[in-house]
Structures are given as C-alpha cells and as structure tokens.
Design a protein that fits this description.
It is built from 13 helices and two strands; from the N terminus they run αααβααααβαααααα. The chain is mainly α. It has one domain. Strands 1-2 form a two-stranded parallel ribbon. The longest helix is centred in the first third of the chain and has 36 residues, at 38-73.
C-alpha cells in the first residue's frame, strides 16, 4: 500500500468518526444551523484559524532544516532521559500482545487525528466563537513550543536508543504506518511528545467547555490518556517526553486563554 492509499484511508476513517460523533454530541439541528451560517462563523474565527494554518505551514517548511540546526545548537539529552527513567518503556512493553498492539496502533494514528479534528468541528458549531478561537491558538502554541524544543534538544526515542530492550511495535505490526509518520517525525524529535501535548490540550479545552459538550469530555479524557500511553507502549516516546508534553499542553491552554481574552 502506497502513501496515497494510506492517507486516503486515514481521511476516510477520521471523517466517518468525526461525522458520527458530531451527530451524537453536537446534534443534527446545530450542525444544520452551522452549515447555514458557516461564512459568518468563519469570519468570527478567521484570524486565529489563519494563524494556526500559518504555523502549520511554517512548521512543515522548517522541519527538516530544524533537524540540521539542532545538531549545531542543540543538546543531546537522550542519555539524561534514560538516566531519569531507566527501562520504564521496556517494562511497559512486557505486557504487549497482538490485540493490545493493534489497539494502541489504531489509537496512535486514527484516534489521535480524530481527537484533534473533532473539537474544530464541534466548537465551530458553538454560538460563542471563543472556544474555537482558543482551540486554534492552543494548537498553534503547541506546535511553536514543540518546534523550539526540537531545535534546542536532541533526543532519540527508546526504540532507537535501547533497541535491545524496546521494540518498534507500531512499525513491526503495521509497516505501512511508517509512510505517514516519516512525513512528520524525525528520530531525534521526541522531546516533548506532541501527541501527548495536543491530547492534553484537547482534554483541557473539553474541561473548560464541559457545559457546552459534556459528553465530549467523557470521550476525550480516556482517549487522550490512551494516546499518551500509546506513545510509550509502541516504543516511540519516553515517559519523560509524555510528562513534558503534558506540561506543554497545559501551558498552551493557559496561554491560549490569555491571548483569546486579549483578542476579544
């Protein structure tokens, strides 16, 4: 299976998940109203959404150059991370089984993308534009913070640093997934875990607006936790990466709330 087929399958599955969840959580009536007033809603949130788009474009453009730059100015902290936590990821993989690996692989790829996309749809349907503005800014802050850390710190994941102890379970059980991950990840860019930071960001935003979509919080919290665990179980991130990612996520939500208030 080639890259286009993998991407097409990802888009189709995530679109189906987002559509079904939107019908259950947002509701058909509100979705119809959103479609009817879409231009006005986008005008209300155009600046932060445009800012997020610009950050994503810049992030994609400088990702490869950032790796080269990090070897010039960055600090290799892989040994320090291992000194702090030791073979924790290897111990986590000791409970590995084919069904568990398949489940965490699906969560890492499909669950993660769904977790990021659904809030954009749900908060677009809200009468108040503040949730969507805050979400867009929080996502942008995550990527800015992550890119800065990737330049300043060189860190190999456990599957690369201790391959005799940690298996690359995602790639051994689902080889074609590497066609996707290789487009956005580099072996030295693991601190912090952006999967974890953005998952925590989504959960934090769901807590902030739990009165708007209480059922979304009930889904986002366990899924966000599962995404964070999947990064370690699959051998991609250290526990330290996950903790740092959680801190970045919390800081991004706080920063987005502050900036949204100033924007308003």
């Amino acid at each position: 299976m080639g890259l286009l087929q993998v991407v097409a399958r990802l888009v189709a599955i995530v679109a189906a998940l987002v559509g079904a969840t939107a019908l259950l959580i947002v509701g058909p009536r509100r979705l119809r109203e959103t479609w009817g007033s879409l231009p006005a809603r986008l005008r209300q949130t155009g600046v932060p959404l445009g800012g997020l788009g610009a950050v994503l474009v810049v992030n994609g453009a400088v990702r490869d150059a950032g790796v080269d730059l990090s070897w010039l100015v960055g600090i290799n902290i892989t040994g320090n991370i291992y000194a702090v936590e030791g073979p924790f990821v290897a111990a986590l993989q000791s409970v590995a089984s084919p069904p568990l690996t398949a489940a965490f692989s699906v969560i890492y790829v499909y669950g993660y993308v769904f977790l990021l996309i659904f809030p954009l749809v749900a908060y677009l349907a809200a009468d108040d534009p503040t949730p969507l503005r805050t979400t867009a800014i929080a996502y942008a802050l995550n990527y800015v913070g992550g890119l800065a850390c990737y330049v300043l710190f060189i860190a190999y994941g456990p599957r690369n640093f201790i391959p005799e102890l940690v298996q690359p379970l995602l790639y051994t059980s689902w080889p074609e997934s590497q066609l996707l991950t290789s487009r956005v990840n580099h072996n030295t860019n693991v601190f912090p875990s952006l999967h974890s930071s953005l998952a925590i960001t989504v959960v934090g935003l769901a807590v902030l607006w739990r009165d708007l979509y209480p059922r979304w919080l009930s889904l986002a919290a366990p899924l966000g936790a599962a995404v964070a665990v999947s990064t370690m179980y699959l051998g991609i991130h250290w526990a330290v990466d996950v903790v740092a990612g959680a801190a970045l996520g919390v800081a991004s939500v706080a920063g987005a709330r502050f900036l949204t208030a100033r924007f308003d």
